[in-house]
Write a structure and sequence with these properties.
elongated, disordered N terminus, mainly alpha, single chain
């Protein structure tokens, strides 16, 4: 399995994304070496002042990894937090983040019963809750 991960990483490295800012922070090395590497394009940041772009890109990277960590390491989250994370991920998707697995995990958690009381009340209740997602159109 490690070989597949390496091969995927090598395939990703065949092309280089040109960011709308210079990568000067040492944080980039940390983010790029994480278990779920991302290749965002940050295209919407061209509308921002140059002095803000790298800082905002780093904040987006940190948000993605914080949300991923919480979801995949069993950190207890309320329904409101899960829905907030879902909205954040939709915005990050517009910057080129691969959020498919993380959004699926949120959907799993939103559909699963939280405790025995919820489990018994949800069996008799066939109401479906509708969720509205807002797409970020850029910054």
């Amino acid at each position: 399995m490690l070989t597949i991960h390496k091969r995927k990483r090598e395939e990703q490295d065949l092309y280089e994304i040109v960011y709308p800012f210079a990568k000067t922070s040492s944080k980039w090395k940390q983010y790029e070496s994480m278990d779920t590497p991302q290749r965002p394009h940050f295209a919407t940041m061209v509308q921002m002042p140059l002095s803000m772009r790298e800082f905002c890109a780093l904040a987006f990277m940190q948000m993605f990894y914080d949300i991923s960590y919480k979801l995949h390491n069993g950190v207890p989250l309320s329904q409101v937090e899960l829905e907030g994370h879902k909205e954040t991920l939709v915005c990050l998707e517009n910057e080129g983040f691969d959020v498919t697995a993380t959004l699926s995990r949120i959907d799993e958690l939103l559909l699963s019963p939280r405790n025995p009381e919820e489990q018994t009340s949800s069996k008799g209740d066939s109401t479906v809750k509708k969720t509205t997602l807002v797409r970020c159109s850029g910054l």
